[in-house]
Specification:
The chain has two domains: 3-49, no CATH class; 57-238, SPOUT methyltransferase, trefoil knot domain (Alpha/beta knot). Helix content is 39%, strand content 18%. It has ten helices and ten strands. The chain has a seven-stranded parallel β-sheet, with helices on both faces. A three-stranded mixed β-sheet has the order 2-1-3. Helix 5 (77-89) links the parallel strand 4 and strand 5 (94-98). The longest helix is centred in the C-terminal third of the chain and has 23 residues, at 216-238.
Length: 239
């Protein structure tokens, strides 16, 4: 973060901002200036100027990630930000956006991350075919979130839980505690046939009510937490 512009009212409301902005140039700005800088109807009285934070795919894979969220052709900035925020909350190690996805620096996308954009590595412009090849080279499994998938996520979680508890008679279709990259597709069309073909398994989040489907952000949250729960459980079991 390079500069912070804030109104006097904001500084009165947030006196701790002086300490939080240590090492950053803090400037006082009036409401008219802040309104011109921001793109919201009702600015919050503070604007920060930051450097881009995306990193290379090499840096992510070299760090030995266990959970990666991959957005394939995700076009809506609000959805992209929501998925990134969910990945952060689930403890994912990185988020990857393919070259045809929305610009994560879109103001709406940045706001939708609620700060999570600055919490975990983000890779932009990735080629999904190359990503999958390189993940497999490092032992990272590929799961595709697909409403028509043949693997039921609830059943998969039950299988994994039973196996971790020592029930050797239960066969799990995929070890959720293993390093995993989840593929999430376009809001309207989902994952393409090529993207689906790249996955080890196509996993569906079951819908028990009358809703036709889940939106992207909700489905991604459920999938990422399924992996996170199994990975955390495996770590506890190994202590």
């Amino acid at each position: 973060m390079h500069e912070v512009f804030a109104s006097e009212a904001c500084l009165d409301r947030l006196p701790e901002l002086d300490d939080l902005a240590h090492g950053t140039l803090l400037r006082i700005a009036n409401d008219e200036v802040l309104a011109a800088m921001a793109d919201t109807v009702n600015p919050q009285g503070i604007v920060a100027v930051c450097s881009f934070v995306d990193v290379s795919l090499d840096s992510v894979l070299d760090a030995g990630p266990r959970l990666i969220a991959v957005m394939c052709q995700v076009r809506d900035p609000g959805n992209a930000g929501t998925v990134l925020r969910a990945a952060d909350a689930a403890g994912a190690d990185a988020v990857v956006l393919t070259g045809s996805s929305v610009d994560i620096y879109n103001p709406k996308a940045v706001r939708s991350t609620a700060g999570s954009l600055f919490h975990l590595p983000v890779v932009l412009g990735a080629d999904v075919d190359e990503l999958v090849v390189r993940c497999r080279e490092r032992g990272i499994g590929i799961l595709a979130a697909d409403g028509y998938g043949t693997v039921n996520l609830d059943q998969l979680q039950d299988q994994n839980a039973a196996r971790r508890l020592g029930n050797e008679s239960v066969v799990s279709e995929y070890a959720l505690e293993a390093p995993t990259a989840w593929l999430f597709g376009n809001e309207a069309q989902g994952l393409s046939d090529n993207e689906l073909a790249l996955a080890d398994h196509r996993v569906a989040v079951p819908v028990y009510g009358a809703a036709e489907s889940l939106n992207l952000g909700t489905a991604a949250t459920v999938c990422l937490y399924a992996s996170a729960r199994s990975q955390q459980g495996a770590r506890v079991g190994n202590v």
